[in-house]
Amino acid sequence: MRKRFNSLQAAGIIITELFINKGSDNLNKVKIVTDSTVDLSKEIIRKYQIDVVPLTISIDGEDFIDRVDITPSQFLEKMKLSSELPKSSQPPAGTFMKRFEELGKDGSEILSIHLAGELSGTVHSAASAAKMAGLNVRVFDSGFTSKALSFQVIEAAEMARQGYGASEIIERLQIIKANTRLLIMVDTLENLVKGGRIGRANFLIGSFLHIKPIASFEDGALHPLKKARSHSQVINFLIHKFSEDFLKFKIRGVGIAHAGSLDLSLKLKESIVKETGFAEITIDETTPIISTHTGPGAMALMYYFD
């Protein structure tokens, strides 16, 4: 299957146009569903006809539907003024079931791809709905979130356009999942304190030393990599890690997500382009669901390779 996929991919534009021009039923054979932690622009979501089911965020007694009732920027402003850590809620199984029934009424397969089950119950909620709906629904745990989730969602949508079935797409997603890197920098430790992840003493020491922890996300958990003292150190470390993989593998996609740190994200992108020549890098402001835990100023570099 992999060899066949690579050969098809080499002629991707021709194949895509073939299906579009024919008005083939293959365009509707597999419909892609994901959740609002995917960190994709509205333009990309429309382009690939991706169906996004939003999570809910609660802050200071108010509930907001992620990216519907509140934007990432608006949320960051509210979070800065809040004394408590906001809480997120996955979509209920009934919401997924209703969406699946609507999408599957024409007989289409449905592939629902979601953020890591260790981070949220969203994928489990989707799986429960799939059992109840009685339709041809497959649910896949991406093992990631944000741009790392988007890599799988976009490639799934591309393959669906080319006429692949859900089983073939899932085979490819397993490969992407294994070959994805997610490296994140936390700019402030305040949200980690509010969430009970570090003690107040460590927070005071870390703040005094201006520590900006960098970690990798693997197997559903964060693994500390470095304690940087400045944004320059953060950028240098991330470039070093990316360059190592750039020399060993074929990079397929790169994305940067941030929580109110656009300037730093742009510097990181410029530095990567200068160091490696790889310029196809997207930058998006991350969902409130993620920034709740990372706090303002956080930034993540994500990429995958073959």
Q: Topology, please?
A:
Elements: H1 2-10, H2 12-22, E1 30-35, H3 42-47, E2 51-53, E3 56-59, E4 62-65, H4 72-81, E5 87-89, H5 93-104, E6 109-114, H6 122-133, E7 137-141, H7 146-161, H8 166-178, E8 180-185, H9 190-194, H10 200-208, E9 212-218, E10 221-228, H11 231-248, E11 251-258, H12 262-276, E12 281-285, H13 288-294, E13 299-305
Relative strand content: 15-25%
- Principal-axes shape call: globular
**Helicity level, as a percent range?**
40-55%
Structural class category: alpha/beta
Q: What is the radius of gyration computed over CA atoms, rounded to a whole number of angstroms? A: 20 Å
Query: Could you report the average pLDDT, rounded to the nearest whole number?
Result: 86
Report the biggest beta sheet as strand number plus sense, adding barrel if it closes. Answer: 6 strands, mixed
Count of DSSP-assigned helices: 13
Order of helical and strand elements: HHEHEEEHEHEHEHHEHHEEHEHEHE
Order of strands across the widest beta sheet? Answer: 10-9-8-13-11-12
